[in-house]
Amino acid sequence: MKKILQVALILVCVFVFTEVSAQEARKFTMKHGGMKREYWLYLPSDIKPDAPLVILLHGYKAKAEGYRPEMMTVAEENGFALCYPQGALDGKGKTCWNVGYPFQEGLKTDDVDFLCTLARHLQKEHDLSRQNTFLTGMSNGGEMCYLMAYLRPDVFTAFAPIAGLSMEWSYRKFDAKKAVPLMEVHGTADKTSRWEGDPSNEGGWGEYLAVPQAVSYWAAQAKCTHEETVEMPLVRNKVIMHRYMGGEPTWKDGPAVEVRLYEVIGGKHTWALNDMDTCREIWNFFSIYLR
């Protein structure tokens, strides 16, 4: 009897593991700009028609496959589709998003149009919401979030750059088309994407704004009237959330635009998953703007 129970327990464990493992993102390809582009898509088991869509961008040199599986758990719990696009190769043979780094000069990849085309394709193909489509990403993916906030707020409702930068060239070239909800998570000890900015391009990524200045720009665009500082529950590094509130309505009778900066004291170039529940915090922010 004991052996039978042990075998039954093993079979149950295998079944449960198989069910969990089956909840993975599926690979797809599409043609864009004469290139074959790849993306991974995760659809929750009980996804509803007109469900929200979150597009998540990896960092420089990274891969979309297997990236940030923690967000799939949040997608399953909250019923939104989750897409991980793959960045194309640059002249160095590294995967990237074309955000105008100095070494990307001459790079023809139009990632702005690619992400917009991908969003529209997913909305049509999988009956996802055009009004509830959101963009997040880390590092190079975070830079792409800032660029899209300038250029395509008609496609993406809110943005969540993680350890991302606002490039000086785009800050000087573009004016925001509209106020957008935006949250940034950034470590003060980040040596790759410096909290204090890099006005002389010492890091080789190009000149970029200090993180507080970059976030304050979007708070100013939203005409936020006041700031609230909240200390998040301590996990490892202290995280201080700066909430800029009282902004313009996102749409008629909609919630006011809010801008947030999560300052991770002593945090490095990471998603800050050991300091806060970053993935759920992103969705909690995005969900404010569902309609």
Give an account of the 3D structure.
The longest helix has 21 residues. This protein has seven helices and twelve strands. The protein is globular and about 40 Å long. It has a single domain, classed as 3-Layer(aba) Sandwich (Rossmann fold). By secondary structure, it is α/β, with parallel strands linked by helices. Helices cover 29% and strands 24% of the residues.
Helix-strand blueprint:
Blueprint: H1 2-22, E1 26-32, E2 35-42, E3 51-57, H2 70-78, E4 81-85, E5 88-89, E6 95-96, H3 111-125, E7 128-138, H4 140-151, E8 159-162, H5 168-173, E9 182-187, H6 211-221, E10 226-231, E11 239-245, E12 259-264, H7 278-287
Which descriptor suits the 3D outline?
globular
Specify the CATH homologous superfamily: Alpha/Beta hydrolase fold, catalytic domain
pLDDT averaged over residues: 92
CATH class identity: Alpha Beta
Provide the CATH architecture.
3-Layer(aba) Sandwich
Note the quaternary state here.
Answer: single chain
Task: Please give a handful of descriptors for the protein shown.
alpha/beta; globular; 291 residues; 10-stranded mixed sheet
Q: Nutshell version of this structure?
A:
This protein is α/β, with parallel strands linked by helices and 291 residues long.
